[in-house]
Amino acid sequence: MVLAGVHYDGCSFSRTIRLHLLDHALTNERLGDFYRQRGFSGRVGFGERPALLVIDLARAWTDPACPLGSDLSGVVESTIALLAQARNAGIPIFFTVMAYDTDLHEAPTTLRTKLPSTRWLVRGSEWVQLEPALERRSDEPLIEKQRASAFFGTSLLSQLVARGVDTTIIAGCSTSGCIRATAEGCFDNGFRAVVVREAVGDRSLSAHEANLFDIDARYADVVSLEQALDYLVSLRSVGSQA
Q1: Model-level pTM?
Q2: pLDDT tens digits for 2-61?
Q3: Which helix (H) or strand (E) holds 36?
Q4: What whole-number distance in Å separates Cα of residue 175 and Cα of residue 41?
Q5: What residues are labeled active site?
Q6: Is residue 151 packed enough to be buried (19+ CB in 10 Å), middle (13-18) or exposed (0-12)?
Q7: Considering the domain 50-241 in this protein, what is its CATH number?
Q8: Closest alpha carbon to 128 in 113, 118, 139
Q9: pLDDT tens digit string along 113-129?
Q10: CA–CA separation, 186 vs 182, rounded Å?
Q11: Three-state secondary structure call for residue 224
Q12: Which residue of 70, 89, 145, 170 is 20 to 30 Å from 56, comparing CA positions?
């Protein structure tokens, strides 16, 4: 693919750029190098006081019987592994789910028009119930949201601040929507944002891969499940020595 005088983020490059850019994914090392050379994709790393954010793993998304759903069994399995170590480490855990009133008065016309799927997300219905395998505990807040970001119109920010959190570990769905928006919210509010690659998913593989690349370039570190688990285990080790 040949691009001449291309514009990226307001920057114009007069020379001809010859790159294979169609594969917009983390595995495209050439594209990754292209971004890093232009000041993207820095590493923020893990901090000292993390919280785990489990985004929208409710039946509407995890059950293929719902029009919104897809097979996210691998994502759920990876999230369960994160939850186990997060609980062992004693760090705060937050769950989110999208839900609206029966008549959708809480969803403005523009939202209902752009996303007719909103009608499936009625408060109290089976579709807005968390995936049972996650086994949410009573001391793990469940935050109801009505937009993609877990921060928009919710108390999440104040709860994270109150607990002194400096790092947000993000799991759930969908990568191209609520995960990306939440990662951006974490970044905008000054948290170290970490997205666990195997613990996030999307109904579209291409959307998943492209958005993982963009999230990693702009908002958060995208790390492997192994890296995240090792970090959580290290917290437990530090706690046992204190």
Answers
A1: 0.90
A2: 333 334 444 444 334 444 555 899 999 999 999 999 999 999 999 999 999 999 999 999
A3: helix 29-37
A4: 18
A5: 178
A6: buried
A7: 3.40.50.850
A8: 118
A9: 999 999 999 999 999 99
A10: 6
A11: coil
A12: 89
